[in-house]
Amino acid sequence: MTIYLAENIKRLRREKDLTQETLAEFLGVTFQSVSNWERGESYPDITMLPEIAGFFKVSVDELLGVNRAEDEEEIIKELEAYDNLTDNKLKQEIIIRLKEKFPNDFRILLRYMTCLVHFRENTPENIAKIIAIYENIQQNCNNDKIRISAKRHIVELYKELSEKEGSGITFEDCEKIIKEMPRMRDGQEMFCFYYPENYPNGDEIIMNTLEEQFLLLNTVYSHYFHYNGFFYERKFSDEWVLSAFKTELDFLNFVYDDGHYGKMWRTVMYNYGHLGVRYFKIGDNANALKNFQKMCELAIKFDNMDRITTMHSVMFEGNKFDKHTLGTTYVAKKQIKELLTEKYPLSDEFKQNPGFKEIIELVSK
After folding, report:
1. Residue 28 backbone phi and psi in degrees, to 5
2. DSSP, res 299
3. CB–CB of 260/311 below 8 Å?
4. pLDDT tens digits, residue range 29-68?
5. In this structure, are residues 56 and 12 in contact, taking their beta carbons and an 8 Å threshold?
């Protein structure tokens, strides 16, 4: 049975607007003892539980979180259903229902925050809800993974708001949160080499770590060379960027030599698209169409794959890949078609090219 004593003491104390020192004085213990209880580093003596529960006017079972422990099975089942859904509307319905029933569960609050950030309009009411959830998680949640995920969502929101006149949010607000987040070298991925030989699932942990590092590198790489409205065009020539993306694709095709790109599927598809755009910019329509077609063929292959597949490249032999890693609602053909027809800076004349129309047909079926 899971015990929620640490977070319950912290929550109940804050609900009464008490300091740790005040609670310690009432219970006749040291301030350090209360601090350790709230961090889950130690527990009060069992004989003190009725006194603590009485002070907060709750039962011992409620103090320990017994009722919540009984609800854990339902929460886990519902969250698993939420995480596996491919319909955004149904996802929102589930998480709203869960939040109403379990308003203090941080796993649920984080997903509710995700829905507000990604699937709702940024109205003043929704922004206020997002910020309130964020502050609640930062102040009361003991799970660092949830706290950091909440920071990521608030950064996304603040970045968008900082670009809107009159929002009251500047990029400095966004940057402050970014600087509070751990550097990559402080994450669990950096310590995969600590796992001893033949450790259970050790190979899987290392393979997943490698993919995570590839993904992080590409995210920064792509935004530096391609996104932000071609901000860096004054620094990098089209020819140089073409060479950079081709070199990266050569590396990824070497690493994923079986043609199964795992967590990098979207990256590889989009990189072929980036190449197509750059070739178009320098007037090489033949190579532009060639790369756009390759992107579409990979999108079709991805959408036709089973949800769970096994990789067979030399580096990732036997590793399992779950398509939902890229988002349960991600449909590659739909995204690629939108890029080609709406997002990429292609001329109307180019779009009338018979070869381009044939490519669009591929992702329209």
Report:
1. 75, 35
2. H
3. yes
4. 998 999 999 888 888 988 898 899 888 888 888 888 766 6
5. yes
